[in-house]
């Protein structure tokens, strides 16, 4: 349900007030962009408007913030504000470092979110609608219906939130595409330019490790499944992930540092769902029975640490336990 005057009320309520706009801990692109859109909507009316987050946003959001020169604070003091606007969350639990301060905050609260209302929902004037794929989409569409004036930056921020929260439109329906068409047009940017805003550039040594890991990889075929092994001097976890992207169902990547050996493994999600394979249970638990060392992880990702071991030997035992499961 579209609330007909939510943003007019919010802008009116912000007038001449100290306003904090916040989002969930570990803000992603949708959370961060939603907060910045609200900032754009109220900045000229409020006495002071601040985007203040429980902690730093994630790497993609940091990249976008830097490229668009967007400003935010971390761990704001809630008592300095008359009004708080919460975006992309409605549960107190997701407020991280700010949760404890909230119980003593006495000002007005607005909540804008596309997650369904939780049992510990923040009490405030709410615009919550799980039909939207991203909070930026919900804000954009609702504000448009209210004929609120939107600037090109809001178009950019909305598009970025939609692209990331829909996993590149995998979970989008026709209405998301129509909102995207409008926000992209307003942004005056191309689709590629928007995507480039949150591309996190890998470190050069990580890229070299990825390429070496791919060149050195050994392929084991078992029926329709592929298991690969490789070794690098560092970034073994990201190389293991790269090998899954390249087509492995299971990947094992070793890295050695003096006498320490580390094996990082990944398994493809589709493969796990089909076979019930579990890296931790079916492989790594057995590895530590054979080799002195420790392991941690779960079905899709696991790691092993040991000393004075032969990397080929451990990798091959990993492949052995995986094929044993597939039999
Ligand atoms: Mn979201």
Features:
single chain; 327 residues; alpha/beta; inorganic pyrophosphatase (n-terminal core); Diaminopimelate Epimerase, Chain A, domain 1; 2 domains; six-stranded parallel beta sheet; six-stranded mixed beta sheet; 13 helices; 43% helix; binds manganese (II) ion
Strand content: 15-25%
How much helicity do the residues have? Answer: 40-55%
Rg computed from alpha carbons, rounded to a whole number of angstroms: 24 Å
CATH architecture verdict of the largest domain: Alpha-Beta Complex
The ordered string of helix (H) and strand (E) elements is HEHEHEEHEEHHHHHEEHEEHHEEH
How far is the first residue's CA from the last residue's CA?
A: 52 Å
Uncertain segments: none
Name of the level-1 CATH class of the largest domain: Alpha Beta
How is the main sheet built? Answer: 6 strands, parallel
Count of the domains = 2
- Please name the fourth-level CATH homologous superfamily of the largest domain: inorganic pyrophosphatase (n-terminal core)
Structural class by secondary-structure content:
alpha/beta
List of distinct ligands in this structure: manganese (II) ion
Shape type: elongated
Kindly state the number of beta strands. Answer: 12
- Helix count equals 13
CATH topology of the largest domain: inorganic pyrophosphatase (n-terminal core)
On the 0 to 100 scale, the average pLDDT is 94
Q: What is the spatial order of strands in the main beta sheet? A: 3-2-1-4-5-6
């Amino acid at each position: 349900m579209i609330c007909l005057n939510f943003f007019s009320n919010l802008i009116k309520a912000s007038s001449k007030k100290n306003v904090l706009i916040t989002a969930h801990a570990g803000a992603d692109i949708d959370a961060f962009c939603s907060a910045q859109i609200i900032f754009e909507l109220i900045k000229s009316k409020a006495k002071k408007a601040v985007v203040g987050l429980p902690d730093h946003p994630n790497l993609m959001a940091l990249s976008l913030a830097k490229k668009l020169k967007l400003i935010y604070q971390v761990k704001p003091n809630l008592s300095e504000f008359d009004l708080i606007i919460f975006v992309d969350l409605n549960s107190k639990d997701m407020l991280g470092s700010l949760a404890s301060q909230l119980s003593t905050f006495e000002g007005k609260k607005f909540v804008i979110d596309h997650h369904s209302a939780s049992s510990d929902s923040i009490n405030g004037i709410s615009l919550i609608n799980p039909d939207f794929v991203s909070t930026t989409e919900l804000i954009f569409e609702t504000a448009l219906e209210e004929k609120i004036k939107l600037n090109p930056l809001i178009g950019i921020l909305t598009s970025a939130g939609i692209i990331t929260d829909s996993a590149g439109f995998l979970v989008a329906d026709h209405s998301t595409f129509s909102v995207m068409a409008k926000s992209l047009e307003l942004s005056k940017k191309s689709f590629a330019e928007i995507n480039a805003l949150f591309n996190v550039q890998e470190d050069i040594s990580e890229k070299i490790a990825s390429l070496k890991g791919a060149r050195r990889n050994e392929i084991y075929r078992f029926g329709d499944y592929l298991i690969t092994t490789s070794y690098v001097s560092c970034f073994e976890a990201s190389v293991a992930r790269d090998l899954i992207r390249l087509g492995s169902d299971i990947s094992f990547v070793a890295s050695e540092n003096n006498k320490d050996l580390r094996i990082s493994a990944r398994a493809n999600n589709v493969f796990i769902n089909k076979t019930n394979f579990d890296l931790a249970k079916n492989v790594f638990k057995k590895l530590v029975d054979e080799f002195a060392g420790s392991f941690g992880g779960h079905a899709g990702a696991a790691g092993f640490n040991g000393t004075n071991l032969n990397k080929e030997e451990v990798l091959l035992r990993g492949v052995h336990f995986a094929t044993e499961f597939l039999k």
